[in-house]
Amino acid sequence: MTGRITLGLGIITALYVLALWWVDSRNQVFDGFVLLSSALPLMLLAAFLSFVVRFARWRWLLLRAGNRLPVMRGLLVYLAGLAFTATPGKVGELVRIRYCALWSIPPWKVIAAYVFERALDLLVVLALASLVIKRQDLLISVACFALFAVGLVVLLALYPNGLEWCIRTLTSWRATRLARLLQTLRDGLVGCRIWFHPLDLLVGAALGLAAWLITSLAFVYLVRHLG
Predict the structure, then answer these.
(1) What integer best gives the mean pLDDT of the chain?
(2) Three-class DSSP category at 65
(3) Contacts of 25 by beta carbon, 8 Å cutoff, 6+ apart
């Protein structure tokens, strides 16, 4: 069974790479590779540093929640989740639930850390964007979206009664699988309250800001390198 799954994933990956290569070659994406060759080492270093900073924040959150991860194996688990960042909202990163079970970390804590990180990232990116966006109407629209999303997370974390009503309703309709899924989400949102503390908010935001600044500066360097 495992062999078939591996083979299937290998075929899907190969098809994806071939399709990507075909589309990029038609759009002359590879024409800039010569220009990028000298910039790639620095770009790779910046990406790795950004990942390390993000891992430090993730490990901090789990430590504050009472779970200790070994540094090197924990870093590998975190990097494994980054393989699925292309999914909407980076929800694929929750594959870490499978690996964190090795250290008896319950799924709701992994979900809580994921939600907390995304909320902080929204605020950090909003703060950075506000420094350069000159169109006030666009900035207001972006700010409203970010603050609404973060506010919704806080509201559901502090007052999960609405979610509990939905869970009971789904259970009465015998939609048990959907009810369990919503219950796991509820537990994750409520779990965010662990870090509703000035120290955790400050550390989380500072590390998030550092990670996004590294990524932003790398992007600026790349654009300038391409002229």
Answers:
(1) 89
(2) coil
(3) none
Hey, what are 196's tokens? 């509703």
Which CA distances in Å does 22 have to 9, 17, 36?
20, 9, 20
> How confident is the model over 78-119, as pLDDT tens digits?
988 887 776 666 777 888 999 999 999 999 999 999 999 999
Record the tokens describing residue 36, joined without a space. 């990028």
String of DSSP letters for 157-214 = HH-THHHHHHHHHHHHTT-HHHHHHHHHHHHHHHHGGGG-SHHHHHHHHHHHHHHHHH
Q: Give buried/exposed letters for 137-157 (b at 16+ CB in 10 A, else e).
A: eeeeebeeebeeebeebeebb
Residue pair 103/112 in contact (Cβ under 8 Å)? The answer is no
Q: Which of 118, 123, 113, 121 is nearest to 58 (CA)?
A: 113
CA dihedral 108, 110, 111, 116 (to 10 degrees): 120
Burial 185-212 (b: 16+ CB within 10 A, else e): bbbbbbbbebbeeeebeebbbebbbbbb
Neighbour count for residue 163 (Cβ, 10 Å):
17
Token pair in block for residue 198: 């000035």
Question: pTM of this prediction?
Answer: 0.83
At residue 124, the 3 state secondary structure works out as: helix
